[in-house]
Amino acid sequence: MKALQAAQQDMPDTGYFRANVTSQRNSRPISGATIQISDINNPDDILEEITTDQNGQSETVSLGAPPLEYSMVPESNQPYSVYNIRISAPGYEPVDVSGAEILSGEVAVQNVSLLPLEETEPDSEELFVIPPHTLYEEYPPKIPEDEVKDVTQTGEIVLSRVVIPSGVRFSML
Prior knowledge:
By secondary structure, the chain is mainly β. It has helices spanning 2-9, 151-154, and strands spanning 13-23, 34-39, 42-51, 61-65, 80-88, 95-103, 107-114, 126-129. It is 7% helix and 36% strand. A hairpin with a 2-residue loop joins strand 2 (34-39) and strand 3. The radius of gyration is 22 Å and the shape is extended.
């Protein structure tokens, strides 16, 4: 989490964000949807608020991002900044996306399908959380597996490498 906070404070570069908002019922664009962008460390502080046009697309906005050099060196500081995104429109259930990543010089596009209110239960807000990348967060270690599997249980074999057969023989019945 320290790397995340350090990256959020060191953002001399610029990344970009744009949203495409459609209806989950008929995939039609939703015009007039409101997109609020806030810092992940301070979700009550709205940094940008934009709306969608008749095509359900927002304008592209500039957001702070860490230096591009961070993405050039493996295991250096986190090369992206992280934001919370809230998308809402009249007559639709709002959607929250936590952990949207913004890279220096790149456009992050968030496609969102909103569910009409009559199809949802009251107070059933949907939250999508994008977890930190495995390079910058501690996750439990992967459970080791045997390279050669016992074929008597399922009849399937998982090989440790790709094997391309030299030929395939077909027989006609």
